[in-house]
């Protein structure tokens, strides 16, 4: 047997731990060969396909601790709708499938998020690829798994930032705003907001009122707290009801963003000095947390076991402290948003944080 | 309303985060008073009872990040079987209950593990105390909750140690042995072993064979890995079938222990240089991980909400990324051991680690 | 004896460690009283002056680990040139001195940077205050001391960010730009650039050429490195020779900044995808590094010893791994810039980093 | 040109950063080849000598962050007095020199401590090797350099442990004892003791009295501090005047040690509950601190520059925040002990820590 593995979409912490687990299980447990495909589906468009033999990584513990992905994950576009030099789009899926076939693989493990997984599944169905998916996304917005690889590390980075901002906020009596990732789903802001002691937590799933928020900050001051911590996802509504996003993943760097917009609004309304920090790419990289390594390891081992059992078109998942697998079709149904009735929201509000009010009706996004 | 809170048993990271969450929910949400009882039930034996008013902590974010417990948790003994100066034991439960009554509290939140919770429940039933329990234990061996406060931080400390030991093991071509806590249940060793890349993981729940273990290490060497990492819980069997423990929590410091015993045995059998590190109390203290703060926060808020609903004799718990509550009677049934058929064990073995074989038949413990 | 202590200017890590050391030395060693003055000289404008008795902090180890300053350090302005509500400026130095006199202190320890120290000295000379200075600044730009309190932690935060950015840069084959503090002096960028493996290090003290820098990045790519790391201080020259700054400490949050400006320029010239991270206030707060605590402790103890010896108008300093003291007049002579002939610069260039060419002739700053 | 590099003696954090700096300077700056020699002088006894070509590491940033040494550093013994299988000792220096000559190198960079450096120098003088030394030792006991590679990371690990032990000590009202490395020189204990807030700091260079120490702890309790932190180097005197050591680097794991011995003595005299943690090998491994990477980088670059200038028999060193070089003969004169009149000692005592009294007259060491 000979299996392939690729990483797709934005990188995150724990991808190399998944790769190590796959290699260890496949090589030590089954005696298979493992081939790494470079740069997601982009590597399959190369001739010959761009690959790395992975068996020799079996002894490489460093992979557990190494951020990013040794396979690379540059994104040149959806192969079914591939941007061409002349500005048009082409269906290059046949080329990708031919690339895959040229490798003589028995199965493919695709590590990706919602979007990547949907494309990989489409390729698998068209090309007869034996596909198993492993969920990764710092946003943790995949359905049917409590955790995706990369989320816990992203939360830790955000909490670490909150821990640094709190003392300086108190020393200078300021409102400190931390902008974190989460374009559709606010899981990072919510988890990190609770663990980091935020006074205001703004997520895409919930509506808010600038006046109420400002009043909440003033009330906090009144009860003797000389500073406030705000955590905000990268996409929230404006006071006009438009959605504002910071566009980190866009084609070019964006000047300004949600955090700065909010700082201005909140500063005006409270008379309080405000400062903004945008975490950005710090959330993606770096050594994965123990939790992410653990989840990555269970996912990698289980994915190989699924292949051994010839169970394809499935995605591994984490439920009730166990690894399970679910149909891929169930996972690619769009982002799992924060359930505004869930524990995390009630906890945040129970701790005295301002979160606004659900539900938010989505409008067209506007990048500030 | 006026509620009390105490911490009992060994300290761990996240206790102060629980206290903060309780204070914030009770004071901001319900307008109650919160009284901290010092040193577990020991504080209730003082006259007047030793307490700290906690309402003013409502603005103290630092509690989120502060290890240990501001309430203290020295353990002078079970009030139902209290060790007296003359060497005898006395039932001092009535004194504890009288101390509690003197405080004029409407309810009590007890933060503790298996053993503490059982004693608190007995006191509550005898004294008519409205009790709600919050599970904490670095060993994570409480039933009906996926996580207890303190476990994740303890695992992180152990993984951090593994990360430091691996490069020096490789540089010197050694077997490095890390001894971690877990007298009855091996959850720390198992989680940290996977996340830290252990080649051998020994837990109280599983039997092992020294010759097999040594052979496993030699096989690893044969496949080109120049070092090995071993993680071992503080209580495992000897080669004679006796249970060996390191006795960290005993009355006096113990010379030697499980790790050193194993180092000698493994060194003899492999001819490999071995070194031992005993993590000990490092696992208890320090800043709680974001995960522990999050769980602590949900637990604290929910415990207060239970009191508001007059739901007593219950323990808050974490299940499927939600906070729930379960009958206290269900939780104090003894340690939840590692299920040797579960994901973590199959993952560890799938990664190529040696774990021995279940089940272990318990014999009398012997401290080496 | 009764001594006062205040913190002035931007906060940084290690201020509370200084305060703890002063209290321990003064209380345990000399039996004096220590009075904390709130909010720098602002606290002395209050009636009565805003103070905190500090003797009871003698047992508070937590101060060693606590970021920011418990005394606060809001900056309302130079008392000799104080901004009044009507937009005018007033000399309020007599009020500050009167506030100080009202406290009945025998000496004052002022913890501050270049600017704060100059103002405190002017006040001391006018009011006959027995002043000893302790240098703190994340920028490390004070003369006659190898290190000021706060610098090492700021560098560590920046290196931590570099460590997170490198794997994601490699995974996506990008140029990652990290903007750090340092308006006049580039010590943070230089130290963190070396320790974090930067390919380009831009500091205010050195000139550069955008075309050369872009060529350097392309050369790196040619030699097989698929990404580049750039670290840039918050104030550098534009390609027109103007100085660009990010204005973090200005009155309002600034949209954009040096990093984003550079990303655009470098992206255009290399065709390489660029991403920007602005560290901002993360560099100030959080638990001080062991080194900062060590320096803070030696500074605090030595400052009290100077008072005991009636040696005033001096600043403690760190030279050759020893604490010394120097005349305050020597320290307030303006920022100590990076010496472009020094070890750090030659090391960075020796490692293959692009740093441009000295010297830079200063022009008028322009905030982008 | 073609230069060799080897690491010798116990590993520490920052060795790979030195190697990276040497490679970058030699390859990018001078166009030389760099050959890594495996396992110190042991690699030169192999036929052919065990080596790794290092030029390709020029792009490997990971080396900055990787603990240990990729070259390995197993110690089989001094080649001038090499332990033979029959128990005798042989002079194998000619074989080592022949191995070196077989590599056709123009110069050798030896990274090591006091002992390794002396042996390398003897080899160099006998074999006409162009040698440059780079100081590394977690103990920081090399003369003429303020810092050696590895020291700062070791201190950080120890302070991190102190930070974890303090909250649990306070929660349980205990004396916590941390045993750190330092057989001859107590720099780690001293630096970490100050930065970590130790109440007692014991180092090999200073004498102490158990009764005084116990009284100091009782006095601390009297002033309202409910716990005490003790940091102790691995070799101190007993109450009989014998020197006790923990023998970590001996041939076999040792049961017990200095920390446990002290715990018993101190517990008996104070009636206070004591607990011990032995840091051991945790101090060696893991990601180097930014400071260690910085020093490693300046050392590596400067060592190559010395070779380019044909300056041999010299050791690079750190003085006054500059890299310099000194004659190797000056460095190998034995360990640089803590100067009991220096800043660190007076700071520790000034903070209220018990350190005993200098000087200690050395007696024969006895391993407990």
TrEMBL record, chains A, B, C, D:
<dbReference type="InterPro" id="IPR015912">
    <property type="entry name" value="Phosphofructokinase_CS"/>
</dbReference>
<dbReference type="InterPro" id="IPR000023">
    <property type="entry name" value="Phosphofructokinase_dom"/>
</dbReference>
<dbReference type="GO" id="GO:0061621">
    <property type="term" value="P:canonical glycolysis"/>
</dbReference>
<feature type="binding site" description="in other chain">
    <location>
        <begin position="137"/>
        <end position="139"/>
    </location>
    <ligand>
        <name>substrate</name>
    </ligand>
</feature>
<dbReference type="GO" id="GO:0042802">
    <property type="term" value="F:identical protein binding"/>
</dbReference>
<protein>
    <recommendedName>
        <fullName>ATP-dependent 6-phosphofructokinase</fullName>
        <ecNumber>2.7.1.11</ecNumber>
    </recommendedName>
</protein>
<dbReference type="GO" id="GO:0005945">
    <property type="term" value="C:6-phosphofructokinase complex"/>
</dbReference>
<dbReference type="GO" id="GO:0047334">
    <property type="term" value="F:diphosphate-fructose-6-phosphate 1-phosphotransferase activity"/>
</dbReference>
<dbReference type="GO" id="GO:0016208">
    <property type="term" value="F:AMP binding"/>
</dbReference>
<comment type="function">
    <text>Catalyzes the phosphorylation of D-fructose 6-phosphate to fructose 1,6-bisphosphate by ATP, the first committing step of glycolysis.</text>
</comment>
<dbReference type="GO" id="GO:0048029">
    <property type="term" value="F:monosaccharide binding"/>
</dbReference>
<feature type="binding site">
    <location>
        <begin position="76"/>
        <end position="77"/>
    </location>
    <ligand>
        <name>ATP</name>
    </ligand>
</feature>
<keyword id="KW-0963">Cytoplasm</keyword>
<feature type="binding site" description="in other chain">
    <location>
        <position position="234"/>
    </location>
    <ligand>
        <name>substrate</name>
    </ligand>
</feature>
<dbReference type="GO" id="GO:0003872">
    <property type="term" value="F:6-phosphofructokinase activity"/>
</dbReference>
<dbReference type="InterPro" id="IPR035966">
    <property type="entry name" value="PKF_sf"/>
</dbReference>
<dbReference type="GO" id="GO:0005524">
    <property type="term" value="F:ATP binding"/>
</dbReference>
<keyword id="KW-0547">Nucleotide-binding</keyword>
<feature type="active site" description="Proton acceptor">
    <location>
        <position position="139"/>
    </location>
</feature>
<feature type="site" description="Important for substrate specificity; cannot use PPi as phosphoryl donor">
    <location>
        <position position="115"/>
    </location>
</feature>
<feature type="binding site">
    <location>
        <position position="114"/>
    </location>
    <ligand>
        <name>Mg(2+)</name>
    </ligand>
</feature>
<dbReference type="GO" id="GO:0070095">
    <property type="term" value="F:fructose-6-phosphate binding"/>
</dbReference>
<dbReference type="GO" id="GO:0046872">
    <property type="term" value="F:metal ion binding"/>
</dbReference>
<keyword id="KW-0479">Metal-binding</keyword>
<keyword id="KW-0808">Transferase</keyword>
<comment type="pathway">
    <text>Carbohydrate degradation; glycolysis; D-glyceraldehyde 3-phosphate and glycerone phosphate from D-glucose: step 3/4.</text>
</comment>
<keyword id="KW-0460">Magnesium</keyword>
<feature type="binding site">
    <location>
        <position position="10"/>
    </location>
    <ligand>
        <name>ATP</name>
    </ligand>
</feature>
<dbReference type="InterPro" id="IPR012829">
    <property type="entry name" value="Phosphofructokinase_III"/>
</dbReference>
<dbReference type="Pfam" id="PF00365">
    <property type="entry name" value="PFK"/>
</dbReference>
<feature type="binding site">
    <location>
        <position position="275"/>
    </location>
    <ligand>
        <name>substrate</name>
    </ligand>
</feature>
<keyword id="KW-0067">ATP-binding</keyword>
<keyword id="KW-0324">Glycolysis</keyword>
<dbReference type="GO" id="GO:0006002">
    <property type="term" value="P:fructose 6-phosphate metabolic process"/>
</dbReference>
<dbReference type="InterPro" id="IPR012003">
    <property type="entry name" value="ATP_PFK_prok-type"/>
</dbReference>
<dbReference type="InterPro" id="IPR022953">
    <property type="entry name" value="ATP_PFK"/>
</dbReference>
<feature type="binding site">
    <location>
        <begin position="113"/>
        <end position="116"/>
    </location>
    <ligand>
        <name>ATP</name>
    </ligand>
</feature>
<feature type="binding site" description="in other chain">
    <location>
        <begin position="181"/>
        <end position="183"/>
    </location>
    <ligand>
        <name>substrate</name>
    </ligand>
</feature>
<feature type="binding site" description="in other chain">
    <location>
        <begin position="281"/>
        <end position="284"/>
    </location>
    <ligand>
        <name>substrate</name>
    </ligand>
</feature>
<keyword id="KW-0418">Kinase</keyword>
<comment type="similarity">
    <text>Belongs to the phosphofructokinase type A (PFKA) family. Mixed-substrate PFK group III subfamily.</text>
</comment>
<dbReference type="GO" id="GO:0030388">
    <property type="term" value="P:fructose 1,6-bisphosphate metabolic process"/>
</dbReference>
């Amino acid at each position: 047997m000979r299996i392939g593995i690729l990483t797709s979409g934005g990188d995150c912490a724990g991808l190399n731990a998944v790769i190590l687990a796959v290699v260890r299980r496949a090589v030590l447990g089954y005696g298979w060969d493992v081939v790494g495909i470079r740069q997601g589906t982009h590597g399959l468009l190369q001739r010959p396909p761009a690959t790395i033999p992975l068996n020799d990584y079996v002894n490489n513990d460093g992979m557990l601790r190494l951020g990013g992905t040794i396979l690379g994950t540059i994104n040149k576009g959806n192969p079914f709708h591939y941007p061409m030099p002349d500005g048009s789009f082409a269906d290059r899926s046949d080329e990708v499938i031919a690339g895959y076939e040229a490798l003589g693989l028995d199965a493919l493990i695709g590590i990706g998020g919602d979007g990547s997984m949907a494309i990989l599944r489409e390729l698998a169905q068209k090309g007869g690829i034996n596909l198993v998916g492993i969920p990764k996304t710092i946003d943790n917005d995949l359905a049917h798994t409590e955790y995706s690889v990369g989320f816990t590390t992203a939360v830790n980075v955000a909490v670490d930032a909150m821990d640094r901002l709190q003392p300086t906020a108190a020393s200078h009596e300021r409102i400190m705003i931390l902008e974190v990732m989460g374009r559709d789903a606010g899981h990072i802001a919510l988890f990190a907001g609770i663990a980091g002691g935020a006074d205001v937590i703004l997520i895409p799933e919930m509506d808010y009122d600038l006046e109420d928020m400002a009043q909440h900050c003033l009330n906090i001051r009144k009860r003797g707290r000389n500073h406030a911590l705000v955590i905000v996802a990268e996409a929230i509504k404006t006071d006009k009801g438009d959605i504002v996003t910071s566009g980190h993943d866009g084609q070019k760097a964006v000047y300004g963003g949600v955090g700065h917009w909010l700082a201005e609004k909140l500063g005006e309304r409270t008379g309080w000095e405000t400062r903004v920090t945008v975490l950005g790419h710090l959330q993606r990289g770096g050594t994965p947390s123990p939790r992410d390594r653990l989840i990555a390891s269970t996912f990698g081992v289980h994915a190989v076991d699924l292949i051994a059992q010839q169970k394809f078109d499935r995605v591994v998942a984490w439920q009730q402290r166990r690894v399970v697998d679910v149909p891929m079709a169930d996972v690619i149904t769009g982002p799992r948003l924060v359930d505004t009735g869930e524990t995390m929201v009630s906890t945040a509000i129970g701790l005295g944080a301002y979160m606004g009010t659900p539900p938010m009706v989505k409008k067209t996004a506007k990048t500030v």
